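To: structure desk
From: M.T.
Subject: fold request, one chain
Message: Could you run this one when you get a chance? Sequence is below, nothing fancy, just the single chain.
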Amino acid sequence: MLNQASKAALSQFYETMRVEFGSDVKITIVTPGFIESEMTQGKFLSHEGKMVVDRVARDTLVNLSPVRKVEETAKAIVKQVLRGERYVTEPAWMKMTYVWQVLWPEAVEWVNRLMCMTTVGGESRHDTFGKRILDMVGGRSILYPTSIRSPEMQPIKSN
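Reply: Done. Structure tokens follow.
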């Protein structure tokens, strides 16, 4: 939740900068989905302040969202920035969430709660509907690149 709040704050900060600077400075706001990273591999800071690998927490956070390769995402972002786009969303299909957010915000909130919030009386803080579906259908093999499915923590490689 803190991650989303900080992204929203940064987005509004850059929107304000656009107003302040006018057309003198070009600003592109990039909103990427999940990409290969230590977080999508399951690396988190524990309550004790130690870095731990927790794939269950990763699956709870990411759940049914596809995770894209770094290189593929970076190429798509750079291409759009060079075209002068003011807003870049990768993967592009995620732009539809903004449309839904404007047209029917209650539905977006409901789906987010359904998929990402733990269920009342659930077995643990990781007991979300999205993770249950991921586990039932074996979605990791489709939605997650092999680099983050490995049981061993590996650095993300780029070509």
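Reply (cont.): DSSP finds nine helices and four strands in the chain. Let me know if you need anything else for the meeting.
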